[in-house]
């Protein structure tokens, strides 16, 4: 840093001297050549655009990496929070077949022990309506289920139960309703959920109402305009999802009759008041989810999953960003310290790390009783604090003020000295080179002069040799004086560096 400062100062001084010499000799520089726009464009592109594009690509890649880390970290945290919460889901396929028992009521039946994802049943299941007391064995995937009709005892034991004995579970129903005119006209509809055992015994019943979420025309227009691209491309559909909490804190009371089937039916109140085509609610898709009961934290994360995901991801992203910025800052400081170890020495006080560090460093170097001495001087015995020296100087000034006399009482030598100084100041320019003028000036008297008179009896050649010898001595003395000044300055600068390093280490 100091070497660069010296080179910059030397370059500035050299340019200034060159301009002064050219101005003195009357030299005029020619007009600069016209700028080349191809070079300017090349410089602007490769020194401005390309570095910016590279920097922007690095920033985008860093942001994507931090965002991916944030999402992965949130998924891991959510997995730890939801550990032990085994939530299972089954798709519901409603049956809209006409019924002879009354008005049309869409119905869906779920076998909790089945692993099928399609709505098909074995043909032997239809034989359950037969009144003959016979036993039918139906193969459902890999599980063999035995049914006994006419109130016979179920052949399954408690080992085939879906729910763990003594554990509490929840059941919830998710319905996706299209925003159709039929659903809007029907309004409120009833949802009935029944839990049944393997012999079709009713274990629990839940009834509640629901409806398509209301939305005004302006809100619907704004939402659809905002989501126009996903809706037009088919990524999203014009449907609303309704979630109903059917059962909570449920557990099997009778281990011999565990829950095996779930029956869901939808009904419209007073269907006779609607036309035949508008008597059933339209369902796009449905799903049944059940699992062990959640604690308050798990319930909050599950009910507000979108909100928690956004807040958690953003918080983790900002945390990772601060960590990355601190690491980059530390690496830049280490690189700067390796390449420019004394760069902080030339910084201003505003660039210090803190006010405390700045005050401590200033107290070290700006103490009232500190005096810097050269290495070649041994003034340990004659050292005095600066305050005592200032007091001593003030006392001497007071003593001198007491001994002052008026201008009328001045002594003759002082008057002669004043007159000589006045004559030297007002001397004409043509007398500056005279021997008398040189001898009167203490600075000019030290310098050798050609007009000094030779001693009596010396020849002209000897006088010239004497003058040349004196000039060489004076030149050598002046060079030695300048060298001493430079060495003292560098010695002082080196001592300041050394003491600063010692203070930093301490």
Automatic annotation (TrEMBL):
Pfam families: Seipin. Residues 390-426 are annotated as: Disordered. Its main location: endoplasmic reticulum. InterPro entries: Seipin (IPR009617). The keyword RNA-binding does not apply. It is a multi-pass membrane protein. This is Seipin. The keyword Zinc-finger does not apply. The chain crosses the membrane at residues 52-81, 304-328. It is found in: Endoplasmic reticulum membrane. GO terms for cellular component: endoplasmic reticulum membrane. Keywords: Endoplasmic reticulum, Lipid metabolism, Membrane, Transmembrane, Transmembrane helix. Residues 390-402 have a biased composition (Basic and acidic residues). GO terms for biological process: lipid droplet formation; lipid metabolic process.
């Amino acid at each position: 840093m100091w070497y660069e400062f010296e080179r910059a100062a030397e370059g500035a001084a050299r340019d200034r001297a060159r301009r002064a010499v050219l101005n003195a000799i009357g030299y005029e520089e020619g007009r600069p050549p016209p700028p080349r726009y191809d070079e300017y464009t090349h410089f602007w592109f490769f020194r401005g655009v390309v570095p910016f594009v590279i920097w922007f690509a690095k920033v985008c890649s860093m942001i994507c990496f931090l965002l991916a880390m944030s999402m992965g970290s949130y998924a891991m945290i959510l997995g730890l929070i939801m550990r032990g919460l085994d939530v299972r889901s089954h798709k519901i396929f409603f049956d809209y077949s006409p019924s002879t028992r009354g008005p049309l009521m869409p119905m869906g039946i779920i076998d909790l022990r089945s692993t099928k994802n399609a709505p098909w049943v074995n043909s032997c299941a239809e034989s359950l309506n037969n009144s003959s007391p016979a036993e039918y064995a139906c193969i459902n995937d890999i599980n063999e289920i035995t049914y006994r009709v006419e109130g016979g005892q179920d052949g399954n034991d408690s080992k085939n139960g879906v729910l763990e004995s003594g554990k509490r579970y929840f059941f919830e129903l998710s319905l996706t309703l299209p925003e159709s005119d039929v659903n809007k006209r029907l309004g409120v509809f009833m949802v009935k959920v029944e839990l049944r055992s393997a012999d079709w015994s009713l274990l629990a019943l839940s009834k509640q109402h629901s409806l398509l979420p209301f939305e005004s025309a302006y809100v619907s227009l704004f939402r659809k305009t905002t989501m126009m691209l996903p809706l037009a491309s088919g990524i999203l559909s014009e449907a609303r999802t309704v979630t109903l909490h059917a059962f909570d804190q449920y557990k099997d009371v009778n281990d011999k009759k565990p829950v095996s089937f779930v029956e869901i039916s939808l009904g419209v109140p007073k269907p006779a008041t609607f036309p035949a085509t508008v008597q059933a609610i339209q369902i796009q898709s449905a799903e049944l989810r059940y699992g062990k009961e959640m604690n308050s934290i798990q319930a909050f994360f599950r009910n507000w999953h979108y909100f928690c995901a956004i807040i958690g991801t953003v918080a983790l992203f900002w945390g990772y960003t601060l960590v990355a910025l601190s690491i980059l800052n530390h690496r830049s400081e280490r690189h700067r310290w390796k390449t420019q170890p004394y760069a902080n020495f030339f910084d201003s006080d505003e660039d210090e790390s803190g006010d405390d560090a700045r005050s401590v460093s200033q107290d070290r170097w700006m103490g009232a009783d500190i005096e810097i001495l050269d290495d070649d001087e041994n003034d340990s015995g004659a050292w005095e604090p600066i305050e005592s020296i200032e007091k001593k100087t003030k006392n001497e000034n007071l003593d001198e003020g007491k001994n002052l006399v008026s201008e009328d009482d001045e002594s003759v030598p002082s008057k002669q000295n004043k007159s000589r100084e006045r004559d030297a100041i007002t001397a004409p320019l043509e007398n500056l080179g005279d021997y008398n003028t040189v001898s009167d000036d203490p600075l000019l008297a030290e310098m050798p002069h050609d007009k000094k008179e030779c001693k009596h009896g010396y020849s002209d050649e000897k006088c010239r040799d004497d003058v040349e010898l004196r000039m060489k001595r004076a030149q050598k003395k002046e060079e030695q004086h300048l060298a001493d000044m430079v060495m003292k300055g560098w010695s002082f600068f080196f001592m300041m560096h050394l003491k600063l390093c010692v203070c930093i280490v301490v």
